[in-house]
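agent> Task received from the user: take the single chain below, predict its 3D structure, and emit structure tokens. No templates, no multimer pairing.
agent> Plan: (1) validate residues, (2) run structure prediction, (3) serialize to tokens, (4) report one or two observations.
agent> Step 1 OK, no nonstandard residues flagged.
tool_call: predict_structure(input=
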Amino acid sequence: MQTARNLHQRRKQRTRARLRKMSSGRLRLSVFRSGRHIYAQVIDDLQGVTMAAASSLDKDLRSQAKTGATRDAAAAVGKLLAERAKAAGVEIVVFDRGGYRFHGRVKALADAAREGGLSF
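)
tool_result: status=success, residues=120
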């Protein structure tokens, strides 16, 4: 019997495999969502380097949001990540939702990153 963790890992691997096929060398915007916080980073897989990162634990965002588990916090993380990525010279990425469904906090982060200037 598959556990929830194993099923999540399988979804995550399936998503990454599709991204590798279609990414054509673009950087990857990866999202991790926990029960209390949300994290995002722009990763260059060819060099193995993180170009930009943001999370609901950043000092800038902690004072704004009560908790990191809301859509508002996710949107703030997306905007901050877009600013940092543009400062690093990144404009085009491929969105890696991991094993999560594209709704709620993950969607709010993606929409805010698009509004911030990232293209995917």
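agent> Step 4: summary for the user.
The chain has one domain: 4-115.
agent> Done.
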